[in-house]
Design goal:
Helix content: 25-40%
CATH architecture: Alpha-Beta Barrel
CATH class: Alpha Beta
Strand order of the largest sheet: 9-6-3-2-1-12-11-10
Shape: globular
């Protein structure tokens, strides 16, 4: 069977340019897709799109199913008649190169309130509310209650915290307008995302979405179904997610997310996860599973203790993926299997038919390893780096002399600079899909790094300006893609997914 060779770019929508403080699913997203198509790219990979807090971390969301209102397009709202030129004239100047999440959130909240006041429900909005009611109703309740009582939800009045039916019925009656507002917000997100997704499909570009492994301890999910999480009778976590000390973090990491009660989820064939993945398939062509090793074993840290005090506990293993395939059929998934991964983890991935990831920045730290391109299988996704790594230029600047020597020996030198040489190696590999962070395409240094794991301050903020996407950049990326047979005209392509 012919190999389905293609390539794409990793860019979170928050990094798109625009005047409203954060990237949106509006004209800038359409222009970005047009650039990708002109450069012969076939994939746009993004991070989770769920609502975020003041630090912008997309892996600590208030809901695993809702979309962030930050991505609702102000310009689309104007074109739809829900905002006026006068509304937009009131918007303060916001930074063009970084995201100030509190400031951008305040601007967007004000504009969405104005749009809601001008909105009359339509057949489409009412159909959306009906079709998505299975998660949307609880999300609207959760957000309304958090607005009224603050957080966490365990501090709410007891009847609301424990979801007493009479208390919820009174909420539905007395707070109908606020509940409808949050449904409206999600309707706009869905409509604007769908317009972008449909444009991508017309261009032959697939979207890769990211499914965070864990839910937040204070989230709609833990409030709506506390029995599915490792919480005590008051809704407080008994242990939280993290990772043990390793070569990348001497102290380990305490992420603080809620942990699942996998044994209880298994009793109904993982219906919660099946529903979540079904929702993701409505949005994306491919789904990246974050922290894949956690499906085999996860690191549980007692509350208030350091990561080193944690221990491994068993995840669901293959039974989860069997349940997903049984209910949903063929779902194209990718596994984030970076870092130390045992043979058991790799076997779980292989048995589930899920391609893994290879990261060129990891290939030169010591002895030969799976991240050297001559070890790649075809059914993998090859990257120079990801959102959790420094940019390739930043990584190179911090590399030791010994590591640089290994890189230059392997790549045959770096005559065009490290970013272009690393990109060439990834694109030349046998991996079916090669992905570059936009920062590496732009050859940017450490100031453009998206995230430093475990460091909330300053992460998730990078944005690019529209003028960065020059004709010269488009030509260079297209030539690289065509040289290594990843352009759409040269490839023998299936409609979706990997050839296996």
């Amino acid at each position: 069977m012919p190999v389905n060779r293609r390539s794409g770019i990793l860019l979170h929508p928050s990094s798109l340019p625009g005047r409203f403080g954060v990237g949106e699913f509006g004209p800038a997203a359409i222009e970005w897709l047009d650039f990708l198509a002109a450069a012969e790219q076939s994939v746009w990979q993004m991070l989770p799109l769920n609502p975020v807090g003041a630090d912008g971390c997309p892996y600590q969301a208030s809901s695993t199913l809702a979309g962030s209102p930050l991505y609702v397009s102000v310009e689309r709202l104007r074109d739809e008649g829900l905002l006026t030129a006068a509304d937009l004239a009131d918007v303060p100047a916001l930074p063009p190169d970084t995201v100030d999440y509190p400031a951008a959130g305040a601007v967007k909240a004000d504009l969405l309130a104005r749009a809601y006041a001008a909105f009359t429900p339509t057949a489409d909005s009412e159909a959306f509310a009906r079709e998505q009611a299975w998660w949307l109703d609880d999300y609207a309740r959760y957000m309304t209650l958090r607005e009224r009582h603050g957080g966490p939800w365990t501090s709410w009045p007891a009847p609301l915290a424990r979801r007493d039916p009479d208390a919820l019925a009174r909420l539905d009656d007395t707070e109908r307008d606020r509940l409808d507002y949050y449904r409206f917000e999600q309707y706009l997100f869905a409509a604007h995302f769908t317009a972008v997704r449909d444009h991508a499909r017309r261009l032959g570009i697939e979207l890769i979405g990211d499914v965070a492994m864990f839910a937040g301890t204070d989230s709609c999910e833990t409030w709506a179904a506390p029995e599915l999480f490792q919480l005590d009778a008051a809704g407080r976590p008994t242990a939280v997610a993290g990772f043990p000390p390793d070569e990348f973090s001497a102290d380990g990491q305490v992420w603080g997310n809620a942990l699942y009660r996998w044994e209880l989820m298994a009793q109904d064939q993982y219906a919660w996860w099946v529903d979540r993945i079904r929702r993701m398939t409505q949005l994306y062509d491919m789904i990246r599973l974050d922290h894949f090793r956690g499906f085999l074993r996860y690191w549980a840290v007692p509350v208030g203790r350091p990561a080193s005090a944690g221990g491994w506990r068993d995840g669901p293993g293959p039974s989860l993926f069997q349940a997903i395939r049984k209910e949903l059929g063929e779902v194209v998934m990718l596994a984030e299997d970076l870092g130390p991964a045992s043979a058991e983890v790799q076997q779980l991935r292989i048995d589930a038919g899920i391609p893994g990831m290879r990261l060129l920045q990891f290939a030169f730290a010591g002895d030969e390893n799976q991240h050297l391109p001559h070890h790649y299988p075809t059914d993998c996704v090859a990257y120079t780096g990801t959102h959790d790594n420094d940019t390739t230029l930043g990584w190179w600047e911090e590399s030791s002399a010994d590591q640089r020597l290994r890189v230059e020996r392997y790549l045959g030198g770096v005559p065009d600079g490290i970013c272009r040489s690393m990109a060439r190696a990834v694109f030349a590999s046998v991996a079916e899909l090669a992905v570059l962070p936009l920062q590496d395409v732009l050859e940017l240094g450490p100031a453009a790094r998206m995230n430093v794991p475990g460091q909330a301050e300053g992460s998730w903020r990078w944005r690019f300006r529209a003028e960065a996407l020059t004709p010269g950049l488009e030509f260079r990326l297209r030539r690289l893609t065509e040289t290594y047979g990843r352009d759409r005209r040269a490839s023998t392509r299936r409609a979706r997914g990997f050839t296996g």
